[in-house]
Task: structure prediction
Amino acid sequence: MKKKFLIGICTLALMLGLTACGNDKQEEIGGMPISTYEQTLKSYITGLESVDETMITYYISQSEQADDKVFVEFFKDVKECLPLKGKFVKFYDNNKTFGGINIGKFNIGGNKAFSVEKSGKTITASIIADYSKRDLKLTYVLNANDVKAGPTAINIEPVYTLGETMSKAGLNTVMGIAIVFAMLVVMSGVIKCFEVIPALEKRSKAKKELDEKVETIATPVSTPVVNQTDDLQLVAVIAAAIAASTGASTDSFVVRSIKKR
Result:
């Protein structure tokens, strides 16, 4: 199915190219009349009207198997645009300008409905088609040195108004600023941590040392226990000995101290 689709477009483009060659006055870019670029792009647009999401998925699969990256990306773009475009209405006048800023008769930054430009070795042709929901822009890129080799890139995308584009740009700007501020807050927090962590470690160390000192002070000093029982027995023995030698009663005297030599 993909081959039939591509063969149909290429055949139509070739027929239009041969027809255009009969007119020597037509301007050419890359050895091909501008009208041929226009008809080729229009044939792509009209050819897409006969396909649905199922066919597009099949074309993507076939292009991936053939390792045709150009058409893989093109059909993926088409698949994304299908729910956005609605029905095809018409092709705009080639000189109609979209977007940009109008200053009198001049338009700055806008795009024409159809244009072909050559920049160095690259030829870029684009066309904007009118659809019921949202217009689509088809861009066709060729190698200027080898036009017959076919496109090096094909892209189709929705056309947004200047207001929509500015809204998206503004939203992206706000998101970018928010992300930058968020990162600055995170970095500030990290830097603050480098200041707080050493202080906490120092405080913890000081508390630990204080606890060790308090524990040392609170530890009771062990005092030697005097064996009073032995001393009392010794006093009784001495008192009995004195009483026996003197013949006096033990109640008539008091042993106040005992000195050992």
Observations:
- Confidence is low (pLDDT under 50) at residues 10-24.
- The chain is about 55% helix and 20% strand.
- The chain has two domains: 2-98+110-159, 161-201.
- Residues 85 and 134 are 5 Å apart (CA to CA).
